[in-house]
Design a protein that fits this description.
Layout: H1 3-7, H2 9-20, E1 29-31, H3 32-53, H4 63-74, H5 76-82, H6 88-95, H7 100-105, H8 107-112, E2 120-126, E3 129-138, H9 149-152, H10 156-173, H11 178-195, H12 202-205, E4 214-216, H13 217-221, H14 229-237, E5 243-246, H15 249-253, H16 255-258, H17 264-278, H18 285-291, H19 293-299, H20 307-318, H21 320-331, H22 333-356, H23 363-374, E6 377-381, H24 401-418, E7 439-441, E8 446-450, H25 465-482, H26 503-520, E9 524-525, E10 528-529, H27 532-554, H28 561-571, E11 574-576, H29 578-587, H30 593-601, H31 605-611
Parallel strand pairs: 3-5, 6-8
Antiparallel strand pairs: 1-11, 2-3, 4-5, 7-8, 9-10
Length: 630
C-alpha cells in the first residue's frame, strides 16, 4: 500500500482524477454526482432537441406539452424581441399598492400568482397526524445565504453590493431610471435586514421538528394589525381553517413590527425587487444573464448556463415528473427497478439484524425501531403514476414562454391548496426520476431512489458486488439510517412526530449524536471549519449506511473490502470552487464530500485491517474515538 493511502484515503483514491478534472464554466463543482448529472443532461437535451424538430419522435401524452414548452424556451429570438416587457404589468400591480388595505383586497390572488410576500403558505403533511395534509406558514428567504452572514461574515457587505448592482441594472433594463432603481433596491435591502434577526439560521433549522408549532388561526392572525390573514385563507381554502402550523414563531411574533405603517414603502420596494428577479430566466438573454449574477457570484460560477441547457432546465422545472417518467421507463426499466428493489430489501434485512442484536437499546425501543423499519415504504426508479396535476399542463405555443410558466405556476399553487385537509399520498414523489439523488421522507416514512442515481459508480452490473455495496448499497443504507438519525428518530412508523424511545435509550442516543458532532465540529476545510451540529443528521446517516452496507458486502461470495472502501471514496470525489465550499459550510446539512469519505471510514474497524492502517498513520483513529451508532 502506498504512503498516500495511509495519509489521506480520499486523495489516494481520487488524486489522479482531481489533477485532471475541470469544473464546467456554468457550475461551481464537478465530481461523482455531477458527472452523472452532466451525462443525463446531455442525453435528455439530445432527446428534447430531436423531439422539438420531429413531432413523430415525441411520444403521445404529457411529453408533448413538455417538448412544446422546450421549443418556446429555446426560441431566444422571440424572447429577445420581447425583452422584459411582460414583467411590467406584474410589477405595476405592486407599484399601484397605496396601503395595506389595497394589498389585503387582492392578497389571495397575489399568493396564487406567486407574487413575493413576506410570508409563504404551504400545504403539507401534519407532523402529528402524518396521514392528513395541513396548512403551514413560513418566513421569506433572506438575500444573504444565512442569518449568520448579517452579523459575522466579512464578505457580507461585498455580497450585498453585488446584489445591489445586479438588481439596479435589472430594474433599469425593465425601464426604470437609475435613481428610482437605486432607491427601490436600497429599500429592499433595508427591509431584508429587518427580517434577518427574526428568522432561523441553517443550524437552527437543521432540527426540522422545531417547525411544528400549531396555533389557532385567531392567535396567528392577531399577530398582524395590517394583514388580513383570516379573509385571505378563507378565500384560498374555500373554508376557514381553525389552526395552522407556524414554522418559525419568532418571526411572526415580530411580524407586526416588520409590517408597520412606517415600513410600508420598504415592503413595497422589497416586493418589487424580488419580483423583478423572479422571472429573469424566462426573458431575454440579456436579462437572463443579468438575473443570475448574484447566484453565480455566491458559488464562484464563471458563466451562465448555455442557452440550450437553460431551456431544458426550465422545462424540467415545470414538467419534472413527466420528464422523469420518460427517462425512467426508457433508460432504467422494470428489470433494473426490480433488481435494485431487491437490493433495498436486502439492506433492510441487514438493518433489522443489526437492530435485533443492538447492545445499547432496550428491548422495548428495539422492537419499536423494527416496527418502523418494517413499515418503511420503498420507491425505486420511477413512480408507478404521475400526479394528476400534470394532466392540466397544456403548453399554448401561441402564447409566450413566461405566460405559460405563470399559468402553470398558478395551477400548481391552486392544486396545492386543494390538498388541505385531504389524505397524504404516500406514493407521490418529491423528486424527478431523472434526478441524481435519493431521500428519506420522515413524515411518510419512505425511502426514494430515482433511476438517475442507479448507475456507475454507484451501481453497475460491471462492478463487483462489493463496489456496488460501497456505492449504491451505502447510499441505500444511508437513507434507511435517516429513519433513525437525530431527526428521523423523533418520528414513528406512520411518520408522526411521536417519541417511541425510552428515556434512557434517548439519553444514550443523544450522547452518541454528540460524539458524531464532536468528530466533525471545527474540522478545517476550504478556509473555514465544519459545523458539527448543522451536519450531524447526515453524518449519522453516513455512518449507519457505511457500516450496514459493509455487513451486506461481507455476506457475498465475491467479497472484496478493498473494492468496497475504494468505491465509497470514489462516489464522493468532488472538485469545487472555494467560494462554493465556504457557502456550503454555512448552509448545507451535508458535510464536505472529502470528509464524508475520510472521516467515516475511520470509524470502521475493518478499514484498518483491510489497508493495514496502524497507530501513527494519519488515517488512524484510536478505537475509543471511533463513533458507532447504527
Amino acid at each position: 500500500m502506498t504512503t498516500l493511502l495511509k495519509d489521506d484515503f480520499y486523495d489516494y483514491v481520487n488524486g489522479e482524477w482531481m489533477d485532471t478534472a475541470v469544473i464546467p464554466a456554468d457550475k461551481p463543482a464537478t465530481g461523482g454526482f455531477q458527472d452523472l448529472v452532466d451525462g443525463i443532461d446531455t442525453l435528455m437535451i439530445a432527446e428534447f432537441e430531436n423531439m422539438a424538430k420531429d413531432p413523430h419522435a415525441t411520444p403521445k401524452g404529457r411529453m408533448k406539452d413538455a417538448v412544446a414548452f422546450y421549443r418556446l424556451a429555446r426560441d431566444f429570438a422571440t424572447r429577445d424581441a420581447a425583452g422584459g416587457t411582460e414583467v411590467l404589468p406584474i410589477l405595476a400591480k405592486i407599484e399601484a399598492l397605496a396601503s395595506y388595505d389595497d394589498l389585503n383586497q387582492q392578497l389571495d390572488q397575489f399568493i396564487l400568482d406567486g407574487i413575493t410576500l413576506p410570508f409563504q403558505f404551504d400545504v403539507d403533511s401534519d407532523m402529528k397526524n402524518a396521514k392528513m395534509n395541513t396548512l403551514l406558514v413560513y418566513p421569506p428567504a433572506t438575500i444573504l445565504p444565512d442569518k449568520t452572514y448579517y452579523t459575522d461574515n466579512p464578505q457580507a457587505e461585498e455580497m450585498l453590493q453585488v446584489y445591489f448592482d445586479m438588481a439596479v441594472k435589472l430594474l433599469v433594463a425593465y425601464g426604470k431610471d437609475q435613481a428610482t432603481a437605486e432607491s427601490l433596491v436600497e429599500q429592499a435591502i433595508t427591509f431584508d435586514k429587518l427580517i434577518a434577526p427574526h428568522v432561523r439560521s441553517a443550524e437552527e433549522s437543521a432540527d426540522y421538528s422545531k417547525n411544528y408549532n400549531p396555533q389557532t388561526l385567531d392567535a396567528f392572525a392577531a399577530q398582524s394589525s395590517h394583514i388580513d390573514f383570516k379573509t385571505t385563507l378563507t378565500a384560498l381554502l374555500s373554508a376557514t381553517p381553525e389552526s395552522l402550523i407556524v414554522t418559525e414563531p419568532a418571526y411572526f411574533e415580530a411580524f407586526d413590527h416588520l409590517l408597520s405603517l412606517s415600513h410600508f414603502d420598504l415592503l413595497k420596494g422589497w416586493m418589487i425587487v424580488n419580483q423583478s428577479l423572479t422571472y429573469t430566466a424566462y426573458l431575454s438573454e440579456e436579462i437572463r444573464q443579468l438575473g443570475g449574477t448574484y447566484g453565480r457570484y455566491l458559488s464562484g460560477i464563471d458563466e451562465a448556463m448555455p442557452q440550450q441547457k437553460a431551456a431544458y432546465y426550465l422545462t424540467i422545472g415545470q414538467f419534472s415528473q413527466v420528464v422523469g417518467d420518460y427517462y425512467g421507463r426508457k433508460y432504467f426499466g422494470e428489470t433494473a427497478k426490480n433488481d435494485v428493489k431487491h437490493m433495498v430489501e436486502t439492506m433492510i434485512g441487514v438493518y433489522q439484524d443489526r437492530l435485533t442484536s443492538n447492545q445499547w437499546l432496550s428491548q422495548d425501543t428495539r422492537e419499536k425501531a423494527i416496527v418502523k423499519l418494517n413499515n418503511l415504504g420503498i420507491h425505486v426508479g420511477y413512480p408507478d403514476q404521475i400526479p394528476a396535476i400534470y394532466d392540466q399542463l397544456h403548453t399554448d405555443e401561441t402564447s409566450s414562454l413566461l405566460q405559460n410558466a405563470l399559468r402553470f405556476g398558478r395551477l400548481f399553487r391552486e392544486d396545492g391548496f386543494k390538498k388541505w385537509q385531504q389524505p397524504v399520498d404516500r406514493n407521490e414523489w418529491e423528486m424527478s426520476a431523472a434526478t441524481v439523488n435519493a431521500y428519506y421522507h420522515p413524515f411518510k416514512n419512505v425511502i426514494v431512489f430515482p433511476a438517475a442515481i442507479l448507475q456507475a459508480p454507484f451501481y453497475s452490473l460491471k462492478q463487483s458486488s462489493s463496489a456496488n455495496y460501497g456505492g449504491i448499497g451505502a447510499v441505500i443504507a444511508h437513507e434507511i439510517s435517516h429513519a433513525f438519525d437525530n431527526n428521523g428518530a423523533k418520528f414513528d412508523e406512520f411518520g408522526n412526530l411521536n417519541n417511541w424511545w425510552t428515556e434512557e435509550d434517548l439519553a444514550h442516543f443523544d450522547t452518541l449524536a454528540q460524539d458524531m458532532i464532536k468528530a466533525f465540529d471545527g474540522v478545517p476545510f476550504a478556509g473555514g471549519t465544519v459545523n458539527g451540529t448543522l451536519t450531524v443528521s447526515e453524518n449519522i446517516a453516513d455512518a449507519g449506511g457505511l457500516s450496514c452496507a459493509l455487513e451486506a458486502a461481507e455476506k457475498e461470495a465475491d467479497v472484496s473490502l478493498e473494492d468496497f472502501f475504494i468505491n465509497w471514496a470514489k462516489i464522493w470525489r468532488t472538485k469545487a470552487k472555494e467560494q462554493y465550499q465556504q457557502l456550503l459550510l454555512s448552509i448545507d446539512v451535508h458535510g464536505p464530500a472529502k470528509l464524508r469519505a475520510n472521516l467515516q471510514v475511520q470509524n470502521i474497524d475493518a478499514f484498518y485491517t483491510t489497508f493495514d492502517i496502524k497507530p501513527g498513520d494519519p488515517m488512524y483513529l484510536a478505537p475509543e474515538k471511533r463513533v458507532h451508532i447504527w
